[in-house]
């Protein structure tokens, strides 16, 4: 049974989630990829205000395609998350509680997640067209010049994700593999 989550995601709620939990997000999440993350972190380094409030935010690593008539957004599948690894610890330190993407995360990101109580969710790659049906509204809120990589504010309903790494550092990519290999030995 999927856990229903309403975003923004509080640190308290993020800490309740465990690696392997299936979740359905509703509420507001943001999009950003590496170019937008770099700009956000450059603002932080200069002590300037960010264009979005990252406290309790969930950021989806996606560069959606243009919307067709009658759609809020085009295909919106996850991008590879490690490209944000240089920037994620900074945003987590500012209060970001969730990230949605695909693939592994580096040790610095996991350490920041454990220290600050954040969670990494996986969305299934290759399902961008289906995932976009869960996005009810999309609007660019920063860096329009980045095109697909602009920061968008999304209103989502029952957006499916799985907790890959929880706030304690438990990693489904590691535990799932271990359980599978152990099952083969039996």
- What's the count of strands? 7
Beta-strand content bin: 25-35%
User: Rounded to an integer, what's the Rg over CA atoms?
Assistant: 16 Å
Widest β-sheet, arrangement of strands: 2-3-4-5-7
Mean pLDDT metric: 95
Structure classification = alpha/beta
Shape assignment: globular
H and E string = EHEHEHEHEHEEH
The percent range for helix content is 25-40%
The profile of the biggest β sheet is: 5 strands, mixed, barrel
- How many helical stretches? 6
Distance between the termini: 28 Å
Low-pLDDT regions: none
Question: What does this entry show, briefly?
Answer:
28% of the residues lie in helices and 26% in strands. It has 186 residues and is of the alpha/beta class. Strands 2-3-4-5-7 form a five-stranded mixed barrel.
Written description of the protein model:
With 186 residues, the chain is α/β, with parallel strands linked by helices. It is 28% helix and 26% strand. It contains six helices and seven strands, in the order βαβαβαβαβαββα. Strands 2-3-4-5-7 form a five-stranded mixed beta barrel. Strand 6 and strand 7 form a beta hairpin.
Key words describing this protein structure:
single chain, 186 residues, alpha/beta, five-stranded mixed beta barrel, 6 helices, 7 strands
Present the secondary structure layout.
Layout: E1 3-7, H1 11-16, E2 22-31, H2 34-45, E3 58-60, H3 88-93, E4 98-101, H4 107-116, E5 119-122, H5 128-132, E6 135-142, E7 151-165, H6 172-185
Parallel strand pairs: 1-2, 2-3, 3-4, 4-5
Antiparallel strand pairs: 2-7, 5-7, 6-7
